[in-house]
Amino acid sequence: MSHVAHVRQKGLKAGKSTAARVHVGKVHYVDFAGRCAVLTKGVISVHSSPPAVCPHVEWAIGRVLGTTVKLGWEPQSAEAGTLRSTRSWREAPGMAAEIAAALRQWPMLRFEVTEQPSEGCDGERIMYVPHLGVYRAAMSASGDLMVTEDRIRALLATTTSSEALRSGLDKLLGTEWDRELEPYRLACGQAEQSWLGQVS
User: Fold this and answer.
1) 197 by DSSP, 3-state: which?
2) Which Pfam family name is an example for this entry (predicted)?
3) Which one of 116, 136, 155, 184 is least enclosed by Cβ atoms within 10 Å?
4) pLDDT-based confidence at 189, cuts 50/70/90?
5) What is the spatial distance between Cα 69 and Cα 95, in angstroms, rounded to a whole number?
């Protein structure tokens, strides 16, 4: 059985884009416009969304992926009156940032988007909580967050106490975002995931 991934190809004119359908299985490269791109994968977790916003979320993700998206929503027990959905995706590197940017149109959402590392590209984890805003960090193949040397040096150069250093490290590691989202993650349990950006 082969899978078909949708890889967006930017048009030459501003505002135009096309979707190229390419077969992937054991093949890790797809060719379009005379170039090769590496496919990667990740997970979209919309932890809480008002029911009225859910169709707009699907439309926004579908516009980024270049295909129709139906997420399949379930009640979010951690926040009454909201819905949740978790889905995997397979696409070109950098897609996590595009998906997160699209979802930020609705500031009441709680979500996170991950992208696994691929050849020449770090992985990425992006979290959003309404009162905290966006957290974004590189991610290793094992799922650990990676903080760059420059950010650590900048923190060391500007902190004057151990308490400030600890607070700064917590911010670099997204500790507060994790704390806020953990109850929502636990409510998801072992919900079945389906793939976006490919069909069997």
Assistant:
1) coil
2) DUF3145
3) 136
4) low
5) 15
- Give residue-wise pLDDT tens across range 64-121: 988 899 999 999 999 999 999 999 998 888 999 999 999 999 999 999 999 998 888 8
Residue 69 is classified by DSSP as -
pTM summary value: 0.74
Provide the residue ranges of all domains of the chain, joining segments of one domain with +.
3-199
Separation in Å, CA 43 to CA 167, 168, 171, 195: 29, 27, 23, 9
pLDDT band at 39 (very low <50, low <70, confident <90, very high): confident
Which spans in the chain are helix H? 54-65, 95-103, 149-158, 162-172, 175-188
The CA–CA distances, whole Å, from 183 to 27, 48, 135, 167, 170 equal: 38, 11, 18, 22, 19
Residue range 133-176, pLDDT digits in tens = 999 999 888 888 888 899 999 999 999 999 999 999 999 999 99
Tokens of residue 162, six digits: 């151990």
Residue-wise burial string across 41-72, b where 16 or more C-beta atoms lie within 10 A, e elsewhere: bbbbbbbbbeeebbeebbebbbebbbbebebe
